[in-house]
Fold:
Amino acid sequence: MKINFTEEQNLFREEVRSWLEVNVPKKPLLSLDTKEGFEQHREWEKTLNSGNWSMVTWPKEYGGRGLDLIRWLIFEEEYYRAEAPTRVNQNGVFLLGPTLMEFGTHEQKSKFLNAMATGDHIWSQGWSEPGAGSDMAAIRTTAVLEGDHYKINGQKTWSSRAAYADWTFGLFRTDLQSERHRGLSFILVSLDTPGVTVRPIPQLDGEPGFAEIYFDDVIVSRENLLGEDGEGWKIAMATAGFERGLMLRSPARFQQTAAKLLKLYYKNKDHCSPMLQSKVVEAWAESESYALSIYHTASKILAGGSIGSESSLGKIFWSELDHMMHQTALKILGASAELVDSSEHDAAQWIKGFMFSYGGPIYAGTNEIQKNIIAERLLGLPK
Amino acid sequence: MKINFTEEQNLFREEVRSWLEVNVPKKPLLSLDTKEGFEQHREWEKTLNSGNWSMVTWPKEYGGRGLDLIRWLIFEEEYYRAEAPTRVNQNGVFLLGPTLMEFGTHEQKSKFLNAMATGDHIWSQGWSEPGAGSDMAAIRTTAVLEGDHYKINGQKTWSSRAAYADWTFGLFRTDLQSERHRGLSFILVSLDTPGVTVRPIPQLDGEPGFAEIYFDDVIVSRENLLGEDGEGWKIAMATAGFERGLMLRSPARFQQTAAKLLKLYYKNKDHCSPMLQSKVVEAWAESESYALSIYHTASKILAGGSIGSESSLGKIFWSELDHMMHQTALKILGASAELVDSSEHDAAQWIKGFMFSYGGPIYAGTNEIQKNIIAERLLGLPK
Amino acid sequence: MNFNFTEEQLQFKNTVKSFLSDECSPDSIRDGWEAKKPFNHDRWNKIANLGVLSSNLPEKDGGFGIDQVALSLMIEEMGYAALPEPVAEQIFLINDLMPLLPDSIKEEIKNTYQTGSNFISVAHPLSPNPLFLNDAAGLLLFNEDTYQFALTEDIDFISLVSNDPSRELSKINSIQKSVSSSEEFEKINSAVAARGALMTGCLLIGLAQKMLDLSSLYALDRTQFGKPIGSFQAIKHMLADVAVKIEFARPTIFRAAHSLLENNPKSALHCAHAKYMSAKAAELACKNSIQAHGAMGYTWEMDLHIFMRKAWSLMACWGNEDKQQDIIYKTLTSSEEELGVLYTF
Amino acid sequence: MNFNFTEEQLQFKNTVKSFLSDECSPDSIRDGWEAKKPFNHDRWNKIANLGVLSSNLPEKDGGFGIDQVALSLMIEEMGYAALPEPVAEQIFLINDLMPLLPDSIKEEIKNTYQTGSNFISVAHPLSPNPLFLNDAAGLLLFNEDTYQFALTEDIDFISLVSNDPSRELSKINSIQKSVSSSEEFEKINSAVAARGALMTGCLLIGLAQKMLDLSSLYALDRTQFGKPIGSFQAIKHMLADVAVKIEFARPTIFRAAHSLLENNPKSALHCAHAKYMSAKAAELACKNSIQAHGAMGYTWEMDLHIFMRKAWSLMACWGNEDKQQDIIYKTLTSSEEELGVLYTF
Structure:
């Protein structure tokens, strides 16, 4: 155990910092849930790619830098420190990317990873269906193999980013006789394909963070099948692990929030009771613990270990923490905790984050589902 | 709505206070979980009875004063204010008493209520069995009717006070072919009856708060059947309602704890961080809310209403509150929060209460069971 | 000692409940949002005609002279329906406060305010951005150590956007002309703060109850893993927890209302207690309701957020949980005598 | 940056684990309670022979020179077994502190203390009642602004009863003779407070893990309503919540140990963080474990309370959650610069 950064790691940090200082847009981009904002964010992905920062852990041939997870955590720390834009392509770079790396053919990797890195393909998720939310094995959208292509019929919902994205990935039932987890396949579909209809779902802030995707005799080449026919569940489980785990929820985001919260409290402490101190301390302590745990996990992976139920434990921890921090911020803000006016930038940002934080315990498998997983897989309790 | 005490109610309060001032033992009694302490507490029941204070709500003929629930709440407030001894016969006066009043024959009332009021009969509970804890319908101890008596065989457990009590009441299976809730009867058994063996269960503090009761061909007169044969479940549900509800958990106990907690904090506030204030305020606010709610319920009952799922709601509320208050006290006490030495009276009392408070969410139907009841009966969710 | 409501108190509550259930549906609220006119003048007039706006005026002034307990029952229903119009504010912060104001200000308000036809907005350090000031006839404004009344036309203000589209807020820049006073400032300031706390507390309890009802219905309706999600213990328990919080917050509302009625010297403490408990109940109701709804709870389409938004706003204004906590602590420790108090009444 | 343990570190941990699993069963602890001799000298000698007591002494003094990270792994196991003997105290509060003490005190301790044969007790304002002082050779005592060392025979003390029968405590009345110093008091006082916090944190994580393991086993075993109680969501979720708390407390232990090793200027903060997180994990482990055990958890017969009692004591001494919270807050706000810090390392 040696938990200090090396000279090289510190140099890398400085490189990231300098680049971000020059390149991060001075003016915040519009919301990526608007058409215009979405394109601004796509531009930012291109800018990142121009500096080879799309995904530092990817091999160079796919637009990455071939660096390890510790470097990635450092990159993320600098990214949040610089308050750089949200990654509009997170479904691609953090979820599908690692999945392709593990299960994709050489052709698939070449075709999709580069276009992902450049921002040419922005990806949406196609997991849930109206009757299959937390219970993903209930998927009914079918993909029937006809020669060298699949014909897809059905409906996906809660597809994040789908309102403006280019592609979607998800599970489809390729064996119509199958039930539950069996007979599902992992297929990539361009949202431009004839027969695809996207209908946005306005979320709490009124913007279309999610969409429904309808498939009506949609023809997709067999080349877009990831892995083998019927292997979909296995691959999806790997992807879901990435989602809950360390790729998508790097600690820097929560540490940044905790640091802002502490500053907010300190600035307002004469206007609020000292009792809020306990929440501010909890925010620091928990975000710091989360970071330590992620560095711990990253070290394990680098030493050849694999990630198990850590991702379920982590998902519960960060989502509860995130909500608590935003709730505390609103208490510090007092009566202004309802103002989303552009003239009230601070309050508006905290309120936006507060609303967003309610989603944490829900998406990517509700916390109730995660607790079942922990009880059954980690503690050995019966199904 | 008129939530002030009347002149008469205030006079009653003064009467209670004066009597208690004279009669409450100056030196705390020994623990009622010791043989000697138990007898001291039985003496105290006799003293209470000598002043006609055994149960002010009972009719005069049974040793009560025929007063209403509001008077009872006032009596309890004064009782806790005077730090009078724990009622060793609470199973009798708070649980079996009201049940007898509702379901007992004239003979049963005469025989049992008076002996209860005088402290001659101290009662234990005989609900749980080794295979029937939270799932009370799984009771297997049998009582077979043979002419004018029952022959009882089987085992009860978690019988509170049974180590030194005189009698027990509980459910027995009188219809051997029956299952679950059906075929159970509510029977009263003297622990002196041949064939009864009592084996104490030492609890957290090492003292026998509970006992197992073994029945080996125990002969009990049919006169000790409460209600009709097979009506046991219905009667037990009424008793359990009393238990969780307002009779056994009068608000004064929790208000007294909250007041002590506030004093403890105030005295030690320079040694602990101001963050504990929030817990102290919560203690006051919740104990006060509980009291308001109980006065509300008492008013409803006095106006002819009945008590429903309030008892489940209340049980969750007071048990969580009680634990939180004791936990907070230990935090205020700092390093002395482990001393049970007689020289450390304050710490020892809080620690004793702290350990006791862990029992709240467990006994009388775990809080998990109460939440199921609330969800199913009050909110209409499916079984 | 009688904690039961009178027939008359319950009748006022039921009248308001049934009116709002017809006239203040989530759809009608959404219509107001879309038109960017959340204040529905038609509904306001109907409420006025129902006598609600004058319900607590003395009979000689054309009211029914109902007390604060009946008011709090009515206001809970306004929360349950997420009523956008500032009815609670008029009856609780203007009508109920009026007798306490000095003649100079009272006269001005009386000259301006015509119950039912128009209304007066209120601003206070604990709730500094008055509601619907653009539509109001005047403003009662509390400062650090004075209070004043001004006609809307004499105020320079700008609009502010609230996270609850039902609330049109304003920020006051300056006031050209007003009547001002500092007479009995402590007493009147404390009276309005207590009323603001209790009013938002009543509304929050109604909102929490509504969210619980919506969630229970949803949990019955929505199936997952082949059964209604309401049959899972996790969902049952998260909703039961909300029921517990509401059950033990509600009596604090009625006690506080009764304290105002009786001029109880502890009424400020009791109102703080009511807001403190209600805000905590509403906070849990928001969290557990959206969780029980899952991703659907996160959408604009479900009505849940109409009630959540109002709850978030009302938790924040007129003193949030933290502020009430502070008031309670300071009151409890203000005298040695208070430190050991055991009795509720 | 490498958060993995070395083979050697894990080996020390496993040796201790397997030794304690054989030699420190709940039954053997109960034997000590019944005999009113919780300190088992036979076990103490075996631990000494295993080299644990000298494990962190320099090799020249007959030790293995292992670092604080390895120590913290070992101490977690002592918590897991609820070991009554003050092994953690010796290695963490005496051995590890020794190099920091001034020569005058160090000499005295060296003359008295013979690793393995006897031991030194410690008292500090955060933990004022030393453990097993009656059996100890001497006492290292921290006061307001001085610290001193005294032989047990020169101390006038009385016994105190702890709620954990494994802990024999004493209250010091007076000291007849001692060596005292105030040299570098701030630094040394802070060093012992940090070590006390980290040591109790390590023990608490072990205890929390043990309670979780006992509860999981019980939930598999015990049936209710015709199935193992562990198949009910309520039980699953209450135990999963404990697993989450432990998971995110544990790395804070290792980071704090590493900070001591590296003389990190923030080691006091890191040790406070470790105790804060571990105490919270242990608190929830106690509550949810007893709840999962139901009435059985409330009995003397089940082993659960052996671990709960130790946890309650260790939460209280060497600075409880509240004290650590205070340290963290004061450190974080001690400089403008700290206020915006984002990085962990």
